[in-house]
Specification:
Helix content: 40-55%
Number of strands: 7
Largest sheet: 4 strands, antiparallel
Strand content: 25-35%
Structural class: alpha+beta
Order of helices and strands: HEHHEEEEEEH
């Protein structure tokens, strides 16, 4: 219902981005890695156990547990995401933390200013959107290349919103 009204008033978002942390190891890769770590630690532990150094076997088991817990913590952190939407009348940023807690930031695109911190060898290292006395950091978990690309797209969307938005009837990005 709101989508129909938004289109009727020309306030539908013409820029929408969903930012998620990158994780290179999927569930299958995680299982393979854990099997490999378990196999190495078990075989090494059995060698030490046969030599009479039984405490080493327990410490290798602790190593397996710590690797497992570290990856589980990493996967839990990957549940965080950020939604960025730009329309003619508002910029809306919704951050969802790994814990499920949400934070929202909404402002008029005419008040929005994009601040980028760049380093010569890395590209964009921080994106901050400010409006009046409020500021929000965006894409802190992105790598510098993705952050640079996103900053360019967001800058173009803000410029388009500040100039009145896309022509009525133009397809959304």
């Amino acid at each position: 219902m709101e989508t129909v009204r938004a289109h009727a008033h020309g306030d539908a978002p013409f820029f929408a981005a969903l930012l998620t942390p990158y994780r290179s190891l999927g569930p299958v890769g995680f299982r393979v890695l854990m099997l490999f770590v378990c196999g190495i630690c078990l075989s090494t532990g059995l060698v030490f156990l046969s030599l009479g150094a039984w405490p080493v076997f327990g410490f290798l088991g602790l190593d397996v547990l710590l690797v497992f817990l570290a990856f589980r913590w990493n996967y839990k952190a990957a549940r965080a995401f950020e939604e960025v939407r730009v329309s003619r009348t508002e910029v809306r940023i919704r951050k969802v933390l790994a814990s499920g807690r949400e934070q929202s930031f909404t402002c008029n695109p005419f008040w929005a200013r994009l601040h980028l911190r760049e380093e010569e060898d890395e590209g964009v290292t921080r994106i901050t959107l400010t409006a009046r006395d409020r500021a929000v950091e965006i894409g802190g978990f992105l790598n510098p290349e993705d952050r640079t690309s996103f900053a360019g797209a967001l800058r173009a969307a803000l410029a388009l919103a500040q100039s009145g938005g896309p022509p009525v009837g133009a397809p959304a990005e």
